[in-house]
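A quick word before the example. In earlier lectures we treated sequence and structure as two separate objects. From today on, think of them as two lines of the same record. Here is N-acetyltransferase written that way.
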Amino acid sequence: MIIQILDHITDEIKQIRIDVFMKEQGFEDEFDEIDETAKFVLLSIDGKAAGTCRYFPSDVAGDAHIGRMAVRKLYRGQHLGSKIMMAAENAIRRDGFKTCSLSAQVQAKPFYESLGYKAEGDVYLDEGCPHILMRKIL
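And the structure line, produced from the sequence above:
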């Protein structure tokens, strides 16, 4: 297993997001201007891209936002999501941020809670899918 922190989006990262968010979950607006400035985590197993996320400074001072966290179906159930999140948090900490936030799909809330994230505010819809803001002090 190899985990990389990249300062640009790659074709492998794009394909993971297309496979998980667009093909599996039906999202349409997957790519945005944040991809031009975000940093990315890419987890590969045996040379194959298995999972990813991105992070960038949020609108809150000292906070970085983690988003687009995805693991390909073939690699699920191996705790790779936790490894991706840990790598992102470590990089965020090294970059000097004190907290990190994320917009969790409500069905994934227990996963993020297991990593120490706490829900803030009310559930809201993103492309018709219920989400909730969550935050963790690093």
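Notice the following. The helical segments are 11-24, 80-94, 109-114. We will return to this example when we discuss secondary structure assignment.
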